[in-house]
Amino acid sequence: MHLRARTLRRTPLLPAAVLLLATACSSGQQASENRSGQTGFVSGSGQVSIFAAADRQPAPNFGGETLDDKQWNLADHKGKVVVLNVWGSWCPPCRKEAPDLIAASKQLGADVQFIGLNTRDLDKAPGRKFVQEFGVEFPSVFDPSGKQLLGFKGQISPTSIPSTLVIDKQGRVAGRVIGEVTTQTLVGMVNDAAAG
User: Fold this and answer.
1) Domain at 29-195, CATH class
2) Per-residue model confidence as pLDDT tens digits over 104-142
3) pTM, whole model, 2 decimals?
4) Where are the domains of the chain?
């Protein structure tokens, strides 16, 4: 009887402990990114941030081997607007936004360099299958460990997949979308970056 009374007294504390634990595990940025209940990607229509020219921060000089075994480096594309899309073959929102990215790249043409950052695929095969399935014509840097993504600390959270950055002609981050991007939004962001 004494044991039962003690158990009853602790029961109200269990929901409070679970709530406290859930709150502690969610960073402010994650909460603001409209996370889905699943891990590793962001769902929703995408949260857009546009940065005035005076407030733009330099993008890290990233690069590496692409899914098609070539070398790619951001420094080689100074003077062009660059669109960086972070994706993984395992990510449902990445699959959903792929047609919009392809449409934007075709609409914007050769004056804008699109580059993917294929992260957390431990092997190139799933990424290559994704590229083939959707007809993605722009390259993607292969980043199985997420090391390249970590270079964007403060600009993209490692849990914000998919994410898209628009990098201006001076190599500064002009805009960011956390979550899925649409063709219209991306084209507008690129045009703004090119003008400023």
Assistant:
1) alpha beta
2) 999 999 999 999 999 999 999 999 999 999 999 999 999
3) 0.78
4) 29-195
